[in-house]
Write a structure and sequence with these properties.
This protein is an alpha/beta fold. The protein folds into two domains: 315 residues, Alkaline Phosphatase, subunit A, CATH 3.40.720; 50 residues. Helices cover 32% and strands 15% of the residues. A hairpin with a 6-residue loop joins strand 13 and strand 14. It is globular and about 70 Å long.
């Protein structure tokens, strides 16, 4: 009877702790992978993926798909690139020099025009609220399908912004969140000797041994393994990848938080991290579009071109897929906002770009009309795009994961990937 009362009390205590968030994600948003690594289901060459996420929705007509003869052409001029027949914005001259390694997808057409819903859709391939399920992001899918369970480093890192997480896959595949790349991961270094640190870890294990042995519940195991993986990370030589201060190529990436984040992303894939997302906000240019896009393009130009060049020199570009994307494009016409006009949300036709990852480069997928308002060739949905990323990463996008209730959910459904067009 005593044991029954203790078990019931323990169960109630566990529920209270879980409700209070004690066993949920850590302050960084990361808990380690506990399940066995799933086998790859595709034939892609890419081992890592870096997403450069342009938060706010960049104007396609001012970056990758200029229409100089259109009504809403704007102020920017197209320039030639290293890829024959491909022109991009004059404010991306360094990227133009590496365009022979890139593919522009000019046929993106998606259903969501509000920021939160569009971001969710482009990260998951599902519309928010669809089926009453919280779907995993592409970063968590890559972590689940290709990540190494015994690695000291996390399998998914998000830099500069809170990205979308693991959804129904649970906390095992959440990203490690890094707000400021210059500061890296705080508290990696200990203030005591290695021997003292080891003693403290041992003491913690002894104190919690009975608790974990008695409960044996998943939240308690997640809680325990958080500390184990944190200790492993602190003691690993790969953790130096988070320290960008002394990198000899730092100046090539430009200045500012985005440049530092992109540099860190390169360092992370060098030590085997399979998925990194770096955010650059400010693209919601309802007003003052041209001055803002010019400034943001300058940040992208230095960092993206340096990333492509560095990975190429290190022999890693073919195995690293780089994606430049936002949640939608912006209106072909310029709005009437007085002295500081801009462009509004426009998911009907827009562009994203991909580099490396085993692709041929120097290509364009899709085409828009003369105003940049409608896709006239190879309409590409969010599902098509995400399925293509999966295939390039060696992941079978038709594979199904089960929700906690046992419902099978396909990684990406209703997709027509364009992989064969670019490899």
């Amino acid at each position: 009877m005593f044991s029954e009362k203790l078990t019931e009390k323990t169960r109630r205590d566990m529920m209270k702790l879980a409700a209070a968030g004690v066993f949920t994600t850590t302050a960084s948003g990361w808990l380690p992978v506990l399940a066995k690594a799933a086998p790859n289901g595709g034939t892609g060459k890419a081992k890592s993926c870096i997403v450069l996420y342009m938060d706010g929705g960049p104007s396609h007509k001012d970056t990758w798909d200029l229409k100089p003869e259109s009504k809403g052409a704007g102020e920017f001029k197209p320039i030639k690139t290293a890829a024959s027949g491909i022109e991009i914005s004059e404010h991306l001259p360094k990227v133009a020099g590496v365009m022979n390694h890139g593919t522009i997808v000019r046929g993106m057409s998606t259903p969501e025009g509000a920021h939160p819903r569009a971001k969710y859709y482009l990260h998951t391939g599902y519309r928010e609220g669809q089926g009453g399920v919280i779907y995993p992001s592409i970063g968590s899918i890559v972590a689940q399908q290709t990540g190494k369970t015994d690695a000291a480093m996390p399998n998914y890192v998000a830099i500069g912004g809170r990205s979308y997480g693991s959804g129904f896959l649970g906390p095992k595949y959440q990203p490690l969140l890094i707000t400021d790349a210059a500061r890296g991961v705080e508290d990696l270094k200990t203030a005591v000797s290695a021997a003292q640190f080891g003693n403290r870890v041992g003491l913690l294990e002894q104190m919690e041994k009975a608790f974990h042995g008695e409960l044996g519940a998943d939240p308690a195991n997640d809680h325990k393994t958080t500390y184990e993986r944190a200790v492993k990370l602190m003691q690993s030589k790969e953790a130096k990848a988070f320290d960008i201060a002394g990198d000899p190529n730092k100046s090539k990436y430009g200045t500012g938080k985005f440049a530092e984040g992109v540099l860190m992303a390169r360092r992370l894939v060098e030590v085997g991290v399979p998925f990194v997302e770096v955010a650059l906000g400010g693209w919601d240019t309802h007003q003052n579009n041209f001055a803002r896009v010019k400034d943001l393009s300058g940040q992208v130009d230095a960092a993206l071109s340096a990333l492509v060049t560095d990975l190429k020199e290190r022999g890693l570009l073919d195995s690293t897929l780089i994606v430049w994307m936002g949640e939608f494009g912006r209106t072909p016409n310029i709005n009437n906002r007085g002295a500081n006009p801009g462009r509004d949300h426009y998911p009907r036709a827009w562009s994203l770009a991909m580099f490396g990852g085993g692709t041929k480069g120097g290509q364009v997928v899709g085409k828009t009309d003369k105003e940049g308002a409608t896709v006239t060739e190879r309409v590409t949905s969010g599902q098509d795009f995400l399925a293509t990323v999966c295939e390039l990463m060696g992941i079978d996008h038709t594979k199904k994961n089960e929700t906690p209730s046992g419902r099978p959910i396909q990684i990406v459904e209703k997709a027509k990937p364009f992989t064969k067009d670019i490899v």
